[in-house]
Amino acid sequence: MGNNVKNWGYEAVFYQIYPLGMFGAPFENDGVQEHRILKAIDWAENIAKLGCNAVYFSPVFESDTHGYNTRNYKHIDSRLGTNEDFKKVCDVFHKKGIKVVLDGVFNHVGRGFPQFRDVCERRWESPYKDWFNINFDGNSSYNDGLWYEGWEGHYDLVKLNLRNPAVVEHLLDAVKFWVEYFGIDGIRLDVA
Fold it and tell me: Which of 1, 39, 71, 126 could cysteine-pair with 112, CB 3.0–4.6 Å?
């Protein structure tokens, strides 16, 4: 980093929000859309008064349950609202001088991730079979008739094959989407 570039993250005072819990979303994602994320707007003034100049949302992507088993990297979880709702939230925080950072867990997805569902249904015929670490001769604890690597042994967290260029492109496209459409100031990338 050049001498003229200030890395604001090292000097920022963050306020972390786990929106699924904070705004009372049900644990299971039943696809029913509720506009809960708009409640974050009511917190913006108080967060600013605390002296925080950044807010860290963890996580917000469409997921199966707890938020870290992602279904879609380009959609706000339906239990929280719509992408347009979250855009309003980002705009309010930005107007108060508060940067918005997302928790981007890009090393695993949920079992509801469409590409994983396609592999479970189409097996060898799936164009996504190399997106994951899969053995078609094994079986998972979910009795899928195939074995796959779960993140740290958690098989509701299907580990992505980050050596696959198509996977990397998919993830970087999601990052670009959030930065360009929402003006997100940062995404904490977890790829371990």
Answer: 71
